[in-house]
Request: fold
Amino acid sequence: MMETERLVLPPPDPLDLPLRAVELGCTGHWELLNLPGAPESSLPHGLPPCAPDLQQEAEQLFLSSPAWLPLHGVEHSARKWQRKTDPWSLLAVLGAPVPSDLQAQRHPTTGQILGYKEVLLENTNLSATTSLSLRRPPGPASQSLWGNPTQYPFWPGGMDEPTITDLNTREEAEEEIDFEKDLLTIPPGFKKGMDFAPKDCPTPAPGLLSLSCMLEPLDLGGGDEDENEAVGQPGGPRGDTVSASPCSAPLARASSLEDLVLKEASTAVSTPEAPEPPSQEQWAIPVDATSPVGDFYRLIPQPAFQWAFEPDVFQKQAILHLERHDSVFVAAHTSAGKTVVAEYAIALAQKHMTRTIYTSPIKALSNQKFRDFRNTFGDVGLLTGDVQLHPEASCLIMTTEILRSMLYSGSDVIRDLEWVIFDEVHYINDVERGVVWEEVLIMLPDHVSIILLSATVPNALEFADWIGRLKRRQIYVISTVTRPVPLEHYLFTGNSSKTQGELFLLLDSRGAFHTKGYYAAVEAKKERMSKHAQTFGAKQPTHQGGPAQDRGVYLSLLASLRTRAQLPVVVFTFSRGRCDEQASGLTSLDLTTSSEKSEIHLFLQRCLARLRGSDRQLPQVLHMSELLNRGLGVHHSGILPILKEIVEMLFSRGLVKVLFATETFAMGVNMPARTVVFDSMRKHDGSTFRDLLPGEYVQMAGRAGRRGLDPTGTVILLCKGRVPEMADLHRMMMGKPSQLQSQFRLTYTMILNLLRVDALRVEDMMKRSFSEFPSRKDSKAHEQALAELTKRLGALEEPDMTGQLVDLPEYYSWGEELTETQHMIQRRIMESVNGLKSLSAGRVVVVKNQEHHNALGVILQVSSNSTSRVFTTLVLCDKPLSQDPQDRGPATAEVPYPDDLVGFKLFLPEGPCDHTVVKLQPGDMAAITTKVLRVNGEKILEDFSKRQQPKFKKDPPLAAVTTAVQVACGLNQTVEEFVGELNFGLVEVVYEWARGMPFSELAGLSGTPEGLVVRCIQRLAEMCRSLRGAARLVGEPVLGAKMETAATLLRRDIVFAASLYTQ
Reply:
């Protein structure tokens, strides 16, 4: 074969080749075609654009070719393009939302896409400012976390969300009014009205009772509105006539009297059977926490989270229900391990790629939980009023107030929310903040499951039943029977090294009360008191309560506990000042070793390094450092926040051996001790001194006993003076804890947030509160019973008005007229000058209202205002058989008795006689007698008020009282008392802090503890930031800028030092 000579040709340019790359459709496929002039794409838009190299283009145009610059070519520097005016472009609006979408149809087995189907979309015009639905589009990314006060909240779970059809029907019903049928005959608030219907029709409508004929002589002028409407709506055809009398045959009704839709007359009506009682709905399901869960790992082969220990039975029961996405209420003893349930919920949400919110009652507890959960899960965020850490995390920790704000503001975090964990639910009993828990529980959407963690409460089922009915889902209640670490309770009567062994067992680990131990403590105390009397005289006081005696008591107690290896110990003292005194008095006590001192010193230096130089030399910082080096600590609200966190961390490490704390320490995280000591069993609750409640005692005593370390926990009650009464000790230690009680009240925040949403009403929130639950929990059962009774009433025969009852209508007319005349005469007498003069203190009157019928009473006091007069009256009544007001039965209805038509038949008690004090209006008095008694109304009222207290309930009425009751304008306190509650002592302190004064110099301006000063400044800064947001909403930018400046001046140094738990 002859070889051809190869020609060397220049490489062709790609554009010179007779090939064209054609893009086929939208699939991304390309095809090469040997066709000159072939299109570059089968679609009209051409090839996809490509981004040029901007750096190369800039260098080529402006650096390598200066001619492009206007500096070198002035003829092209100024150009003008004629623009055609288009006024219609100003009216351009956004396009309408897409009305439909394509939905893929897949094979049920393989999942292969078989085709597409166009489906219509509903609610395509929703927005965060017009809708409460979860289908509305998300808001801006900047508002996804906190929401916006102008946005609507999501629809609360358990409420019936109105559909568009319902809203349209409601609007049409409001607009279309029939002025012939829809007019009222009874004004709102009135009992009677006027019937303007013609009365010249002798024959009643077919199928209706002849009420007009039966009550014609009465001429009462209007009856029930529904009856009047029914007269104009006959049940049969308009052309039918019935010649028979309506009284000739009984009528059978098919529905209630309100409908007045009657069947045709029948000759016989069967007697209806008694309705069966409706079944009670059960929303709270108790779970037996003692039954073992043997198939736990078979039901959950791959748990979302595993611990290094085996979970308890109640924890496994809760985990099983969490896997089923059920809501649970775990009421367990202190230190039983309720946090395990919360940890599994967090892990389960991370597995499902959803979110969890953990709420706590106080900010300090939120910081502690953030540290613990961050070490366990990592993906944890913290939201407080001034700190925002990792808001994108799957688990967010916050206070309950923060969650309430997010719910009202329509935060988009709620969309991805699977669990909300409420820790320390018994905090709902707090008078000031308990309402927040109820608001949050009511406002949570339907897709969110609830986990409630609480100490043991007696009405856990009732509380869970309320939540279940509220959300229309079952709540599983899991309660522990016993503590994991049993407690032993002792009385300590020693006060020196010789008596440090006087420790007497009062309540053992099995719950048995030892009276021998109590009497032994009483005898030991008596013996020492008698020796004291022999030495110093009988007139010496038994207990001064001074620092010297407290020092002796604690030195002897701690020496005994140290010998028995029962440290660390928490001493609960119900006074901030006494906490500091008791810790400062133990100057000779040193409980740490040299290695522990070194560790404490290094930890203090590392934590205090974040403070400025002058703040490290604060007296409280130096004093606390000296105490901590000796193993002592103090924890109360007067301590600086950073020092409280240092004390908590050192205590959890076991370096603080003795901690003097107030009651707030028991609300913290799981920081158990070996022993708990009560300085006293009495506390001041803000108004008076009282004994500890069983729930308070159990909450604090539960800190004793470390699980896995101590076989039993030790609780010691100090008897510095006399030994408390046995009955008081028994009630405090073995009594039932306080029940969960509603603290619901209307607040301005709640009202304003609900009024801006048309679909939510304040009445709906009130009806769903825990306080209204007892009266509404059986509402469906009552509705069914009412429907059955109404049906039976409709099936009754028409009354026979012949024979002996022929004069009944006339008698009724006369009785009604006589009753109204008596009421009118009595009202004129009460309003007359002589009547008002006679109604003075000591006058005997006849009382007739809902509670009392013709009962004798004597007026004790008369108070009046600009509109009415109120008479405080002592009324004679029967002694109630039950002390519970709910067991006394309903009030007597206002039904006239036959004796009332001819005179007054006075009330006479049938059984034991009693009396009560009520406030009456002039209309509550049926008659004024001529008898006047000489009484001291103020003394009687004070004695009655005293006997309403449980302590004096069984005391007999006293004849004389030393002080009088003050009644001023109906207020519970005078103006001076109200003004005395206001404290302006920190105004100068806060002002100087905002001006830049160091915190070390503020101590000389006020004697307030440093911790309270910090709390006051922090709350003021939060208030300034809230006012800043409110000012922006109402259009006051000047005020908003001023509040922002004020908050910036306050936020500095030690007052706003970052929490150690967040580092």
Summary: The CA atoms of residues 816 and 881 lie 35 Å apart. The first helix runs from residue 54 to 63. The radius of gyration is 40 Å. The longest strand covers residues 853-864.
